[in-house]
Amino acid sequence: MMNMPLIKTLDTNLQVMADTALLYAIQVGMKYNIFKALSEKNTREALENVKVQNKILLGKFLKTLNELGITHETPEGPKLNSFHYGVKVFREDYKQIIPDWINFLEKIYEMVDYAFITPDHPYVSMDFDKDADFWDMRMKSKFASLYRKIIMDLGEVSSNTEIIDIGCGSVSPVEFARQIGPNGYYLGVDYSSALLEIAKSRIEEEGYDWVSLKEIDACLIKPSHGYDVAVLSFVLEYISDRRRVIRRTAESLKEGGKIIIIEPFRDSFENLPALEFFESLNKDFVGYPTKAEIYAILEEDGFDVSIESPGKGVMVIKKL
Q: Are 250 and 298 in contact (CB under 8 A)?
């Protein structure tokens, strides 16, 4: 069952998230005199004088500017383009904004100041284990609850549904367990021991004995059980071998089972490189996938599936 209003809300928030990240990126460019350096005749020399200790992160930021079309490459180095950014405010869209994600993006933006000093600065709190509390708060947000509700609707999750959730985190296990009840089964997989410990304590407190949680890298899963629904929500951006994970996930489905993917796909949203720059403060972040990449993997591996994209940030893959 497709809940189009919820999917529209998801897509709107993802696009505004990327647009907001672009505004933050422009602030970074001005704040550190990076734009000034990019306006000089010899930009390579000028960039060497930018007062940023973490030159690797500076290089990543310059690559982001190029991807956004803010700069272009010349023999003397990258040059600043004349650019403009217009904010279009559509009343109906902004009525759909779920504002709690803004708080987290602001915190990540503030972390950039410390990351420009050193990537290991203690105030860069983006590690899944060391900074599990930060991620737990993100996963408890109303925005996160929205996309979990979309997954439940699209997966037609009910009291006897069997689910595998790859990159389950600390909150999804309880929410899905509550929905499927004692007659269903939920397997949550994550490589963060700290997030799984939070999830386990909540599961034990609720007495949900139809839930299993496993600490394992998504690339190493070998499901032996057949599932009705496989969840991949905001996890593919942390997986380098996506083909392997998607193949294993598809193999885990029963006939008629569904993979539900929630992501800000690179070929569906504008200004995503800006959001990628900030999210990459997490060292495991590899970049957002494209829908074309998912289609190609499934086609090349010969899976008999149907694929629907009910929204810009949603894919539903059904095993035939």
A: yes
Beta bridge partner(s), residue 262: 233, 314
Is residue 111 domain-shared with residue 149, that is, in the same domain? no
- The answer to whether the beta carbons of residues 81 and 71 sit under 8 Å apart is yes
pTM score of the predicted model: 0.94
- Compute the distance between CA of residue 240 and CA of residue 262 in angstroms, rounded to an integer: 17
> Does residue 104 sit in the same domain as residue 10?
yes
Token pair, residue 302, equals 């010969």
Pull the structure tokens for residue 104: 């987290």
Summarize pLDDT for 182-229 with one digit per residue, the tens.
999 999 999 999 999 999 999 999 999 999 999 998 888 887 789 999
Is the same domain home to 180 and 238? yes
Please give the single-letter amino acid code of residue 186: Y
Residue at 12 is within a domain = yes
Please identify every stretch of the chain with a pLDDT value under 50, giving residue numbers as ranges.
none
One domain, residues 294 and 253:
yes
Within 207-271, where are the H helices?
Answer: 242-251
The answer to whether residues 180 and 300 belong to one domain is yes
For 25-161, strand residue ranges (E) read 71-74, 77-80
Number of folded domains that form the chain:
2
- Domain-located, residue 222: yes
Q: What is the pLDDT of residues 97-134, one digit of tens each?
A: 999 999 999 999 999 999 999 999 999 999 999 999 99
Annotate 124-171 with DSSP letters as a single string.
----TTTTHHHHHHHHTSHHHHHHHHHHHHHTT--TT-EEEEET-TTT
